[in-house]
């Protein structure tokens, strides 16, 4: 199985769906707490529109809220960003505390094999979706790392990113 990660920021609607198609994504796992993004430019990533377009493209959709950081965990990352004087959309990495807390709070009981089994045998190229442009600034990279390290999972990871001039 191949695993890709993708964020919404930096893509326009056309380039977002083109990236999924170029990567051969057949299954998308939305790992956001709230399945909406502020701003008209990202309306394509709001749940209903996203699911409709994915269905048109033949891409299956799953939502795993239990893999999203809680509001409290996001608040703690925002405090770390403020302390570093880094705007959220300019963040390139997550704080060490966030990474440790996410692993503790969201991945302690996580079973990679069970997760992949839920997706079914037709899942050949799976996308983990959140919003951050940079994979290292998003919990999707932590989950992807976990999936790549678990013995029963054995997935290959690629991070999809918008072109630099977008």
Question: What can you tell me about this protein's structure?
Answer:
With about 170 residues, the chain is of the alpha/beta class. The protein has one domain: Protein-Tyrosine Phosphatase, Chain A, CATH 3.90.190. About 40% of the residues lie in helices and about 15% in strands. The protein is built from six helices and five strands, in the order βαβαβαααβαβ. It has helices at about 15-20, 45-55, 70-85, 95-105, 110-120, 140-150; strands at about 1-5, 25-30, 60-65, 125-130, 155-160. It has a five-stranded parallel β-sheet with strand order 3-2-4-1-5, with helices on both faces. Strand 2 (about 25-30), helix 2 (about 45-55) and strand 3 form a beta-alpha-beta unit. Helix 3 (about 70-85) packs antiparallel against helix 4 (about 95-105). It is globular. The protein starts with a strand and ends in a 7-residue tail after the last strand. The model has no long low-confidence stretch (mean pLDDT about 90).
How is the secondary structure organized here?
Layout: E1 2-6, H1 13-22, E2 27-30, H2 47-57, E3 60-63, H3 71-83, H4 96-106, H5 112-119, E4 125-129, H6 139-149, E5 156-159
Parallel strand pairs: 1-4, 1-5, 2-3, 2-4
Helix pairs in contact: 3-4
Q: Label the structural class.
A: alpha/beta
What number of structural domains do the residues give? 1
Which term fits the overall shape? Answer: globular
Mean pLDDT, to the nearest integer, reads: 92
CATH topology: Protein-Tyrosine Phosphatase, Chain A
> What is the helix content?
25-40%
């Amino acid at each position: 199985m191949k695993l890709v990660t993708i964020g919404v920021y930096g893509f326009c609607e056309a380039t977002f769906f083109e990236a999924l198609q170029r990567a051969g994504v057949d299954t998308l796992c939305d790992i956001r707490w709230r399945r909406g993004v502020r701003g008209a430019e990202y309306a394509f990533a709001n749940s209903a529109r996203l699911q409709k377009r994915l269905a048109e493209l033949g891409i299956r959709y799953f939502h795993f809220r239990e893999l999203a950081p809680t509001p409290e965990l996001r608040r703690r990352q925002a405090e770390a960003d403020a302390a570093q004087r880094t705007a959220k959309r300019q963040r390139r990495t997550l704080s060490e505390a966030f990474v440790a807390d996410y692993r503790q709070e969201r991945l302690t009981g996580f079973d990679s094999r069970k997760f992949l089994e839920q997706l079914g045998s037709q899942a050949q190229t799976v996308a983990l979706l959140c919003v951050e442009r940079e994979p290292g600034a998003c919990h999707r990279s932590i989950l992807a790392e976990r999936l790549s390290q678990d013995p029963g999972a054995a997935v290959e990871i690629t991070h999809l990113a918008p072109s630099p001039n977008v």
